[in-house]
Specification:
Layout lengths: L6 H21 L8 H19 L3 H14 L3 H14 L2 H12 L5 H14 L4 E8 L4 E4 L6 E4 L2 E5 L2 E8 L6 E8 L4 E7 L5 E8 L4 E5 L8 E3 L1 E5 L2 E8 L3 E2 L3 E5 L4 E7 L1 E2 L1 E8 L5 E4 L2 E5 L2 E7 L1 E8 L6 E7 L4 E7 L6 E2 L7 E2 L6 E5 L1 H7 L4 H5 L5 E5 L4 E5 L12 E5 L2 E2 L21 E8 L3 H4 L6 E7 L7 E9 L3 E13 L2 E12 L2 E6 L9 E7 L2 E12 L2 E13 L15 E13 L2 E3 L2 E19 L4 E22 L2 E20 L5 E5 L2 E15 L2 E12 L5 E10 L5 E12 L3 H5 L21 E14 L3 E13 L2 E7 L2 E6 L4 E15 L2 E14 L11 E12 L3 E10 L15 E12 L4 E8 L7 E3 L8 E3 L4 E10 L1
Parallel strand pairs: 1-7, 8-15, 17-23, 29-32
Antiparallel strand pairs: 1-4, 2-3, 2-5, 5-6, 8-11, 9-10, 9-12, 12-14, 13-16, 17-20, 18-19, 18-21, 21-22, 24-25, 26-31, 27-28, 29-30, 31-32, 33-34, 33-62, 34-35, 35-38, 36-37, 38-39, 39-40, 40-42, 41-42, 42-43, 43-44, 44-45, 44-46, 46-47, 47-48, 48-49, 49-50, 50-51, 51-54, 52-53, 54-55, 55-56, ...
């Protein structure tokens, strides 16, 4: 217990305090409570306390000061309480009340007086400075029942000793600090960190990777980023979630102290829609790289924000736009214009613009294939500039610019499946009818290259190339089924799928089948004898066929495979067989598999490596009047090719490559009428190398030149060159000047076939008989002019010279064999074309060509029409639902046989179709009439047939429907 000051000192303090008390007396009445009576009572207590203080009766004065302050709290009264405690020697209490009086005081004089008072008594007390984090905690000393000593931060004046400090703050764990020692005249700071009373909310999100979490108010600062653990005080709370482009419902919850509450917020994208219209229908619409539909369409459920929209259609340059999508609103892209790419790959084995290709090329677009419903390659080629067909109801074959004879199996033409030759190694046949495939649904478009193609493809590409380009990798995942009929009696069906695993990986596959019970064909007999000159061959072209094909790709790897088999009845007197006898048949099967690796090793270096294996089997039964002959031809071959394209300069490309092929099996087998068996196996192989230089030293000129060397195990080395100069003399104009050579090695069948009757092998070492490869030299000048955005006018002149042409000739009056002509065949001509490109569902192409084919002795070539003309047009009738197509072809007269000047009659053949899409059922259809005017026309046949000509179909019907999902 501290001593009270002596009476002398007390008296001095009282005298010093009189001015303060006087001030207090003046200010005390100004303090008023809400009730006047309570204020009066407070004033009374204050006056009593003042009087008692003057009398030195400090204990009694203290009671009245305390009572006055309880009634109406007042800093002046608090000061007097502190002063009275100081007079009583209770310095700790005095210190506390001086502190209370100092709190909030702004008068500088009073603040100075209070600080002086605190300094005066500081040596007589021990001070604890209590600080809590967070502040505001109630402070207790030793026990709670003694009452709170204020709120932190707070200075507590204490007697010297040891104390226990307790602090409490709502929402926080209470804290006690024991054994705090303090001494007189010293100050000790005590910092107490409070721990919140919380529960844990474990926040997870669904529908997005993360989201900001806001507590109790949507506009509150983010408390954490979910998924996260969030500590919250006990009680009810509402969590709000935010993420750009997403929305989530608020989540109310109750938090219990020291417990964990799990909660999951489901975020759903804020979406709008995009209307996409392009000037071409059925263009693929991708949003941020994901396929979403086809033009025109409204894409629903598009996440809000800035989106990248890509519109693409095969054959057109893709268009990319960015567009802002707002929630529940429709953004619009109405002005998308797709520009045709006009790209091809067959002329250079590299994708290039049609105008830059060093060859004369036509393209049959996918839209045309679907609009006319072409069932076979042959029907698709009909009417193409420079192309004509032959059909003897055994095989379809194709000639280009006069180079195509009856029963040559189209062996001067090379048919490719995405660059891989489908010609066999026994006949070198280019199958283009239903013997090639059952439909064209796996084909995106067809490229027709007129002129020599041996520079890149070697043997067989003599008159030209037909390349079937497959459907693109970028199609969406889907499955489909197709059923249809054509030529009245042919039924066909397919089922297939396309699976896009990702942008650079996927697979496409299909199975097909076709059958026909044939149709009746009139046969005009060359030597009818005593019978009628025209007889009916029933069930001509009766056949059964099936197949499977597919492609798979992964990055730079591509695999393709195909299998097709077909058997046919031949009652038409083929090579002198018995007329109207369905016992004459043949069946054949072709299969191939190819694997490619096409990496881009550097920005200026592209590599292509491929390996392939192939198998061909042909079996025939030929029924004659006296007996039957059985024949079999089969071959197996495999090969590899490596090619590199180097672009050291932007205007220079150098392509070099080589290939090897091994033909371990190429076999002819026959069982003749007299029982003799003849088998001839001719294994062979070859290797080749080629180099091509393409340059464009100025925008108006492009040069392409190259050469190829083929080394066969059975022939002398063969070198073929090709060169082209491409000029741009005017805006939109392209002038191509092209020349080159091509070759075709004799097929194994041509070299060694014998029928046991009148035909003997062409190669006979004992008689010093052999066949040389055919060779053709060609030159062409072509000029095309763009007329606006959609139209092109074209004119061309061409000439070619075929040397060592292989044909069937007489070895003696009764014996024939294949042999090289002593005379060269000369073909020259010109053609023109006006074409409107495919735009907005419209298309038009009109062509006319004149060609004159003859031998150097002046004799006109057989089966080579002098006039070629066609008109094709497609017109949309109802958008997407129906388009009308018309094709008109001139079937010009052709020389029938080398022994006479007889010709077939000319004819006009018109085809009409209607095609479209029924979106509701995910179906596409085509219906039509081929040869709508029922025109009767003929093609020449081989001289060994019973008839010199083959009557073609009259009016036939076509119908097909394809249903896909989705």
């Amino acid at each position: 217990m501290h001593r009270a000051p002596s009476s002398t000192r007390a008296r001095w303090w009282r005298l010093a305090a009189l001015p303060v008390l006087a001030g207090a007396l003046l200010q005390a009445p100004a303090a008023r409570a809400d009730g006047e009576g309570q204020a009066d009572e407070a004033d009374l207590h204050f006056e009593l306390g003042r009087d008692l203080f003057k009398q030195g009766r400090f204990q009694a004065a203290l009671e009245h000061f305390l009572a006055s302050n309880r009634l109406v709290p007042n800093r002046n009264v608090v000061f007097n309480i502190a002063l009275t405690y100081e007079e009583l020697g209770r310095f700790a209490d005095a210190h506390r009340y001086y502190d209370d009086a100092l709190e909030g005081e702004t008068d500088p004089e009073i603040v100075a007086d209070l600080n002086a008072a605190l300094q005066r008594i500081a040596p007589r007390v021990a001070v604890l400075q209590i600080v809590t984090s967070p502040p505001g905690a109630r402070i207790y000393v030793d026990r709670k029942d003694l009452g709170a000593r204020g709120t932190a931060p707070r200075r507590l004046a204490m007697a010297e000793g040891r104390y226990r400090i307790l602090v409490e703050l709502a929402g926080y764990e209470p804290v006690a600090v024991d054994d705090i020692a303090v001494k007189l005249g010293q100050s000790e700071e005590v910092l107490i960190v409070l721990r919140r009373i919380v529960g844990t909310v474990r926040v997870d999100v669904r529908g997005a990777s993360e989201a900001a979490v806001h507590v109790d108010h949507e506009g509150a600062p983010p408390a954490c980023t979910a998924p996260c653990d969030l500590d919250l005080p006990p009680g009810r709370h509402v969590l709000h979630f935010s993420r750009a482009g997403f929305q989530a419902a608020p989540q109310p919850l109750t938090v219990a102290a020291h417990e964990t509450v799990p909660i999951t917020a489901t975020l759903s994208p804020l979406t709008g829609s995009i209307l996409v219209r392009a000037d071409e229908p059925d263009a693929l619409v991708e949003i941020d790289g994901h396929p979403m539909g086809f033009t025109p369409s409204v894409i629903q459920g598009v996440p809000v924000g800035r989106r990248r929209v890509r519109v693409s259609l095969r054959g057109f340059a893709p268009v990319e736009r960015t567009i802002d999508v707002a929630a529940s609103q429709q953004a619009e892209l109405r002005d998308v214009t797709l520009e045709p790419l006009r790209e091809v790959s067959s002329a250079s084995r590299a994708v290039e613009r049609l105008e830059d290709a060093p060859a004369s090329i036509s393209v049959i677009e996918q839209q045309e294939l679907r609009a006319f419903g072409y069932p076979t390659i042959a029907e698709a080629l009909r009417g193409t500039r420079g192309v004509y067909l032959s059909n003897d109801h055994v095989v379809y074959s194709t000639g280009i610019r006069g180079l195509g004879e009856p029963l040559d199996y189209g062996n001067r033409l090379l048919v490719l499946s995405d660059g891989h030759s489908t010609n066999d190694n026994v006949l070198n046949a280019s199958f283009v009818g239903s013997d090639a495939r059952d439909d064209l649904h796996d084909v995106d478009h067809i490229e027709i290259v007129r002129g020599p193609g041996s520079l890149l493809y070697g043997t067989g590409a003599l008159s030209g190339i037909v390349n079937l380009v497959p459907r693109g990798r970028d199609e969406p995942t889907s499955a489909h089924v197709t059923a249809g009929t054509y030529y009245d009696g042919v039924g066909h069906a397919r089922a297939g799928f396309h699976y896009a695993a990702r942008r650079d990986a996927g697979v496409r596959a299909s199975v097909t089948g076709a059958r026909s019970d044939g149709f009746d064909v009139p046969v005009a007999l060359t030597t009818p004898g005593e019978g009628p000159p025209v007889q009916i061959a029933e069930h001509a072209e009766t056949f059964r066929a099936s197949g499977a094909s597919g492609r798979a790709w992964y990055g730079p790897f591509t695999a393709q495979w195909m299998y097709h088999t077909r058997d046919q009845r031949i009652p038409t007197g083929y090579v002198g067989t018995r007329l109207n006898d369905l016992g004459t048949t043949y069946d054949h099967a072709y299969m191939m598999a190819e694997l490619r690796f096409e990496p881009r090793l550097a920005p200026d270096l592209q590599l292509m490596a491929r390996g392939h294996v192939n198998r061909f089997v042909w079996r025939g039964v030929y029924t004659f009047d006296d007996a039957a002959i059985f024949e079999q031809q089969h071959g197996t071959w495999l090969g590899a090719e490596l090619r590199a394209a180097w672009t050291p300069l932007s205007w220079l490309r150098i392509t070099g490559g080589g290939e090897v092929q091994a033909h371990p099996e190429s076999t002819l087998g026959s069982v003749f009428a007299d029982g003799r068996v003849r088998t001839k196996s001719v294994p062979f192989g070859f290797s080749a190398g080629y180099l091509i230089v393409d340059s464009s030293p100025a925008p108006w000129i492009r040069l392409s030149t190259g050469a190829r060397l083929d080394v066969y195990s059975t022939f002398e080395p063969i070198v073929v060159p090709r060169t082209a100069v491409i000029l741009r003399p005017a805006p939109g104009g392209v002038l191509k000047i092209m020349a080159g050579r091509a070759f075709r090695t004799p097929s194994v069948s041509e070299q060694f076939y014998a029928d046991g009757k009148t035909q003997v092998p062409a190669v006979d070492p004992a008689r010093k008989l052999k066949l040389e490869p055919e060779s053709v030299a060609s030159a062409e000048i072509e000029y095309s002019q763009r007329l606006g955005d959609d139209w092109t006018a074209l004119g061309a002149v061409h000439a070619s010279r075929l040397s060592h042409g292989i044909t069937v000739g007489k070895d003696s009056p009764d014996v024939v064999r294949y042999m090289n002509r002593r005379q060269d065949a000369l073909v020259s001509g010109w053609d023109v074309e006006l074409r409107r490109e495919w735009r907005q569902g419209w298309m038009l192409a009109a062509t006319y060509g004149y060609q004159r084919g003859k031998l150097t002795g002046g004799e006109r070539l057989i089966n080579a029409p002098e006039h070629l003309a066609s008109f094709r047009s497609v017109v949309p009738v109802v958008e997407r639902l129906a388009s009308a197509a018309l094709r008109i072809n001139l079937e010009a007269p052709r020389r029938i046989a080398s022994t006479s000047g007889d010709e077939t009659a000319g004819a006009i053949v018109a085809d009409l179709t209607v095609s479209g899409e029924i979106q509701r059922f995910h179906a596409r259809y085509v219906v039509g009439i081929y040869n709508a005017m029922d025109t009767r026309y003929d093609y020449p046949t081989a001289e060994s047939y019973l008839s010199a000509t083959s009557r073609q179909n009259g009016r036939t019907f076509l119908a097909e429907i394809t249903v896909s999902y989705p």
